Amino acid sequence: MNIAIVAPSPVPFQLGGAERLFRGLQNSIISHTSHNAELIKQPCLDRQFWPLIRGYKSFAELDLSHFDMVISTKYPAWAVRHPNHHLYLQHTCRGIYDLYQQEKFPQGYNLADAQFKSLKRFLETKPDPSLLHPMLDSLLKLEKQDSPQGTWTFPGPLTRAVIHWLDRATLHPKMIQSYNAISANVAQRQDYFPPGAEVSVIHHPSDLKGFFSKPGEYIFTASRLYHTKRVHLLLKAFARVETRTNLFIAGTGKEEEKLIDLSKNDPRVRFLGHVPDKELLEHYARALFVPFVPYDEDYGLITVEAMASGKPLLTTTDSGGVLELVRHGENGLVAEPEPDSMARAMQELISKPEKTRQMGENARESVSGITWKNTIQALLGQKKPWTTVSVPGKIQPDQEKLSQAGPQKARQTNPEPDPGTSSKKQAMQQDKADSGKVTDMQTKIKDLQKLQKQLSDQKRGLLDLEKRLQLLLQEAGKRIPAPLDSGQPQEFAAQEKHQWDAMYVAFEDRFRGSREDIRERQRVYLPDIQKVYRPDVEHPLLDLGCGRGEWLQLLRENGYQALGVDLNRVMVQECHDLGLQVQEMDALSFLRQCSSGSVSAVTGFHIIEHLPQDQIVYLLDEALRVLCPGGLLLFETPNPENILVGACYFYTDLSHKKPIVPATLAFLAEYRGFRNIKIKRLHKYSEKRPVPDADPFKEKWFYGAMDYALLGYK
Q1: Which helix (H) or strand (E) holds 90?
Q2: I need a surface site. Which of 205, 244, 253, 645 has the fewest CB within 10 A?
Q3: DSSP single-letter state for residue 200
Q4: Among 462, 454, 509, 493, which residue's Cα sits nearest to residue 653?
């Protein structure tokens, strides 16, 4: 696969965190995958309104049809159009988003003049990708006209409204295949993503290589010298610290002269200016600790770089994405964003070198999993992200972890004891009240789960009906006003096979087990997959009858490229929602269109018991053909050797044909050409339920393996 990483080149050019991310993504795709990657950049002056608008137009007109996939991370590059466009968002134009209110810019604008009629119409229309080019053309015509003074102030109320409209159009769900963010802080910012979007949070490392550590000699930080990085706050705090330890500051920026002047009376402070990568690694290694105190930082590469060097971080309670990695007292310290609190934290780090060293070791361990390989696998859907954020709404799975990033103010949850009541009596009353609350909460949770399940089933049914109706209407539209021909009734009738799709998904949810249970059961097969999978060759794994996609998810999380196929339209849609590669087709037809020797493994979980004998034989023949030499066949099916399964549980599913004895399936596979046949008996009844006695006969025939798997090789 050829992948394009599309990005703006800042004017004037500066090498910052964004540029390091672009370079790291390209190098890691080439190094850690079988794909090719190209970094495509276009100059963009994003601090001025009209050059920024021309940037949106330039990227919107960029033809990247010769690439299979496009990744964008920053405005206005995400205006590029491509059918397989994935967003890995760093930040929007913050001055007109989350920082606009902070700067107290004006809110309203007036478009009463006739010359703004067209622009007003666009701004009052819901943003849509189809309107992007007309909107840009209308805007650029206004650039050449005289406008009232202050109209195009940037940032300002009108320019803010325009950029918001352009971003909503270019980041519309029609245009983006997956939404990803570099941090949970970015993912949760207001208006960054479309409502209802599921945003995967994927932390990335620095592109610096060769981090190492030496004994601490001085305090070191690296930062662009801008107001939001708050180096001025760091200098004020350091002035209060009683130490002979020096503070070295690397970086450049528009506040450099002001900061140098602020610290001119402190001989301990030294500004290093731009520092080459080799020297930067050396400074991190020799640092005692690294202070990094920005306001609401997107992510903060300095955090990752310092920790990778085995150095603890000093940050503040409002530093944003930095708090996703810094844990107070464990791998760094988190202070209030004011000089006295920061000074106390710095004094502690200096005066307790052994504790500081240990926090540095913990810091290194904290970022050990943030590697380019893991980042790329998560971005390509082969590995789980750090977490997922739903828009609108706050982060759910890791909210507690984030809230523990810094010192928390104590909050009193219980009233003061009544002087007239004994402590024991009050404790009993409190226990009783707490017990009642817990019981009530558990009941409410169960009721809510039941309602959620009912809603999910109804939603599936409605989606299935909607899709079938849409297909029927499309077919009718092709034929009308012509009379029905002989083939048209069959076309309509073909849709009937999907009428029970939603009900079967609900059936699976109730009787097959939860996603987590199934994935845990299937984990036993990963060593078998590892033996036959070759990441250097385009031989994916193929799962027949993939259902809800548990096996495909497990494979993706472990770095395997896998495809799925299933006839159930609702299940296919659920797989698509999870970002899995699945086609709606019957297994045999799909195999027949695959090239010979193109697949590492063919798997099928609880599929062959749904097929008649001839279909099973054809399936074995086609699987043997498409497998590469040494490739694996893996079929799991209910085990009728367990009498409870063969006589009862098997018939719970009305679509089952008949159970297949392990020896019979092994014979068929061997007779059709597979070798090294193995049978794995799995999921003993006695593993999950107590067995009344240890009788060997009952243990084998009643409480033995409820499923078995056939493994064969080409």
Answers
A1: strand 85-91
A2: 244
A3: E
A4: 509
Q: Specify whether the CB–CB gap between 250 and 225 falls below 8 A.
A: no
Do residues 708 and 679 lie in contact, with contact meaning Cβ atoms separated by under 8 Å?
yes
CA 620 to chain centre: 37
Judge whether 313 and 292 are in contact, CB under 8 Å: yes
pTM of the model: 0.55
pLDDT digits (tens, 9 = 90+) for 508-558: 666 566 777 788 889 999 999 988 987 666 788 999 999 888 999 899 888
52-78 pLDDT, tens digit per residue, is 999 999 999 999 999 999 999 999 999
Question: Are the C-beta atoms of 582 and 576 separated by less than 8 Å?
Answer: yes
Return the sign of the alpha-carbon dihedral for residues 203, 209, 213, 214: negative
Are the beta carbons of 521 and 687 closer than 8 angstroms? no
CA distances from 61 to 54, 55, 269 (A): 11, 10, 49
Q: Nearest 5°: CA angle at 661, between 658 and 665?
A: 95
Which residue reads 């697949």 in tokens? 599
**Residue 117: CB atoms within 10 Å:** 11
3-class state of residue 345 by DSSP: helix
The set of long-range contacts for 263-267, using a CB threshold of 8 Å and a minimum separation of 24, is 263/235, 263/239, 266/235, 266/238, 266/239
